[in-house]
Amino acid sequence: MNKVELDPDGGPMAKFGVFLRTSREARGWTQDDLAHVIGYSATHVSAVETGRRPPTQRLARELDRAFGWDRVFARRALDIKTSALLEGFPQYVARESKAVELRLFDIGIVPGLLQTMDYAQAVAAGAVRRGSITTAQGDERVAYLARRQAGLRRDPPPLIHAVLDESCIRRPVGGPTVMAAQLDQLIEFAGMPNTVLQVAPYAIGEDRSFDLPVNILTLPDRSLMSYAESSQQGHLEQDSGAVLPVLTAYYQLQALALSQAESVALISRLREELP
Questions:
Q1: Tens place of pLDDT for every residue, the chain, 275 residues?
Q2: Are residues 99 and 40 in the same domain?
Q3: Which residues partner with 102 through β-bridges?
Q4: 54, 179: one domain
Q5: Which residues lie below 8 Å from residue 14, measured CB to CB, with a gap of 6+?
Q6: Can you give the residue range of the structural domain that contains 54?
Q7: Are 94 and 7 spatial neighbours (Cβ–Cβ below 8 Å)?
């Protein structure tokens, strides 16, 4: 059986999985051996090790008992529960770095993959001031975003479609200097050979397809997956059949959005108003 490679930077669940596998192998145990000791199936152990299933506190306690440790796994499981990353997002990011095509839509803020680091830090700082995340969680979000952006700088690069609600480019974030640099980066992004950038204007009103941020991936085998989130919950969909209606809605949105040339012209006008 092929051994699944694990990425400790793939998020808190991936980090837990790497630690579990490393600890298990250091004892010379197979997944079946460990599963027998803790009273779970080998399939369950495998799913936790590969980041496909979150570790519960009960599982963590059984792991600590099996290894003879004092709350080592329990603390790591708690770290996942208190992470700033929403459910499903680390699994989405693990596929994002392998996708051949990405479709992004965001409302209110520029999509993470298109953000400058100053813009990303300003967004995180705002969440910290509101008390919705801690300073450490804000730092985690920014560092995680930097790794996501680095993962897309590969050869050949993926094709990236980005539709931004008009609010993304009009809402000031981080002050004039940060916003000016962000608009400059969007214009630069639009000029790349593997990208399409469009703005969905306010004028389309109720015909806008989405009311929440949505990302859609096309993977190398042409299968589809999507990720959508609210402020408190993420939803990962890996069934291509279930993603198709989302893809259709995205196409409808693109048809109503400004062309890339019109979008860049609008962003450029807004940029001229800033220092």
A1: 456 666 655 567 778 899 999 999 999 999 999 999 999 999 999 989 987 788 888 999 999 999 999 999 988 887 665 454 556 677 788 889 899 999 999 999 999 999 999 999 999 999 999 988 889 888 988 988 998 899 888 999 999 999 999 999 999 999 999 999 999 999 999 999 999 999 999 999 999 999 999 999 999 999 999 998 765 567 888 899 999 999 999 999 999 999 999 999 999 999 999 98
A2: no
A3: 160, 217
A4: no
A5: 6, 7, 8, 51, 90, 94
A6: 12-81
A7: yes
